[in-house]
């Protein structure tokens, strides 16, 4: 698709309520889309041969000449059309290393690698050069699925550029993503997640694509994963706290894999316990959610955290989040996402006062932690273009997009519900 005007893709982050890590071992997990999102702006490049990335959230920008990319390798091994493979194509992975060898930081490398892998897979040599600029209201590397959210945005933008999905179908009138288009985006963003952390379960990119809340289970055969939409997902009163301790999902997933190799029987028993508690939580959440159900759900949150501690993915700062909440007897806390730092959720007791919530958030602030006000279960991926009668300059330029100084400014300017002058494609 020739890009004559800019377009904007956005996708949400997620909170895993039950089953992180066990999800990688084909156990079910429950997650919901977050109101924090990643926004990706596609603009035509001035030089049609140049593909450029502007990722200010991780202080990274880079350019490639599209003629320098290993198209021949790809065509020899895969052919001209995108072919979904179970694993990343090793020949492409090794050929791309030459185009990435000047990038030293692992944070930058994984973002650039994900982009190039998907670009090579979904575009072709003659696809017009574009600049891909990304801003996120999600903290990066904090357990809220920023990797999946950016992978979904990149896969969607490149699938549009490569004409594998049709703009008209990305959103229908009810603003729901058409099934076939969504499946294409989900599958390719899963390959993106593989570039970022090796052996993802697929739950994060499924939620970032479809939105809402799901119980998700990867299969260990070539069968597709099972995604069960939880339509009546109860509204949960929770505090989301970021320890701001940096960590990489790839390292934590690799740590659990080492533990599994060293103590296979014990690790399997823990993963099985996570499986049964996720089922119990699911059964509670699909029925009328009364006081008793809420109490039980909090007990399951507590057990799930204990099991995550047992497989070595907590961190002293996450324990601090839990301890402060426990001391105030305000609710039950568990880490969310890969752990090792990043975020925790505290599922609050019903009767908790606003005053106590404020007191706890203040205590967290004193520890250097951040708390977020968010809602769960929102929209999945979406694509927006400027309304016909709007010139690019009337809306916002790449420069402005890159210079938004705060989460609030991003949300207020390009947030799905706030964006004026743009319409769903
Ligand atoms: N806004 C962003 N800009 C650039 N890269 C991003 C952005 N968001 C996520 N990423 C990529 O995702 C990686 C973090 O993924 P991960 O370790 O899985 O943490 P999480 O998904 O919990 O945030 C980063 O190293 C980076 O490659
Ligand atoms: C640890 C895991 O279960 C969740 C990782 O989430 P995040 O990248 O920390 O947001 C891995 C996965 O399911 O792919
Ligand atoms: Mg991730």
TrEMBL record:
<dbReference type="InterPro" id="IPR006203">
    <property type="entry name" value="GHMP_knse_ATP-bd_CS"/>
</dbReference>
<dbReference type="GO" id="GO:0005524">
    <property type="term" value="F:ATP binding"/>
</dbReference>
<keyword id="KW-0460">Magnesium</keyword>
<dbReference type="InterPro" id="IPR013750">
    <property type="entry name" value="GHMP_kinase_C_dom"/>
</dbReference>
<dbReference type="InterPro" id="IPR014721">
    <property type="entry name" value="Ribsml_uS5_D2-typ_fold_subgr"/>
</dbReference>
<keyword id="KW-0444">Lipid biosynthesis</keyword>
<dbReference type="GO" id="GO:0019287">
    <property type="term" value="P:isopentenyl diphosphate biosynthetic process, mevalonate pathway"/>
</dbReference>
<keyword id="KW-0753">Steroid metabolism</keyword>
<comment type="function">
    <text>Mevalonate kinase; part of the second module of ergosterol biosynthesis pathway that includes the middle steps of the pathway. The second module is carried out in the vacuole and involves the formation of farnesyl diphosphate, which is also an important intermediate in the biosynthesis of ubiquinone, dolichol, heme and prenylated proteins.</text>
</comment>
<dbReference type="Pfam" id="PF08544">
    <property type="entry name" value="GHMP_kinases_C"/>
</dbReference>
<keyword id="KW-0067">ATP-binding</keyword>
<dbReference type="GO" id="GO:0010142">
    <property type="term" value="P:farnesyl diphosphate biosynthetic process, mevalonate pathway"/>
</dbReference>
<keyword id="KW-0752">Steroid biosynthesis</keyword>
<protein>
    <recommendedName>
        <fullName>Mevalonate kinase</fullName>
        <ecNumber>2.7.1.36</ecNumber>
    </recommendedName>
</protein>
<dbReference type="GO" id="GO:0046872">
    <property type="term" value="F:metal ion binding"/>
</dbReference>
<keyword id="KW-0756">Sterol biosynthesis</keyword>
<feature type="domain" description="GHMP kinase N-terminal">
    <location>
        <begin position="123"/>
        <end position="212"/>
    </location>
</feature>
<keyword id="KW-0443">Lipid metabolism</keyword>
<dbReference type="InterPro" id="IPR036554">
    <property type="entry name" value="GHMP_kinase_C_sf"/>
</dbReference>
<comment type="pathway">
    <text>Isoprenoid biosynthesis; isopentenyl diphosphate biosynthesis via mevalonate pathway; isopentenyl diphosphate from (R)-mevalonate: step 1/3.</text>
</comment>
<keyword id="KW-1207">Sterol metabolism</keyword>
<feature type="domain" description="GHMP kinase C-terminal">
    <location>
        <begin position="286"/>
        <end position="357"/>
    </location>
</feature>
<dbReference type="InterPro" id="IPR020568">
    <property type="entry name" value="Ribosomal_Su5_D2-typ_SF"/>
</dbReference>
<keyword id="KW-0418">Kinase</keyword>
<dbReference type="InterPro" id="IPR006204">
    <property type="entry name" value="GHMP_kinase_N_dom"/>
</dbReference>
<keyword id="KW-0963">Cytoplasm</keyword>
<dbReference type="InterPro" id="IPR006205">
    <property type="entry name" value="Mev_gal_kin"/>
</dbReference>
<keyword id="KW-0479">Metal-binding</keyword>
<dbReference type="GO" id="GO:0005829">
    <property type="term" value="C:cytosol"/>
</dbReference>
<keyword id="KW-0808">Transferase</keyword>
<dbReference type="Pfam" id="PF00288">
    <property type="entry name" value="GHMP_kinases_N"/>
</dbReference>
<keyword id="KW-0547">Nucleotide-binding</keyword>
<dbReference type="GO" id="GO:0004496">
    <property type="term" value="F:mevalonate kinase activity"/>
</dbReference>
<comment type="similarity">
    <text>Belongs to the GHMP kinase family. Mevalonate kinase subfamily.</text>
</comment>
<dbReference type="GO" id="GO:0006696">
    <property type="term" value="P:ergosterol biosynthetic process"/>
</dbReference>
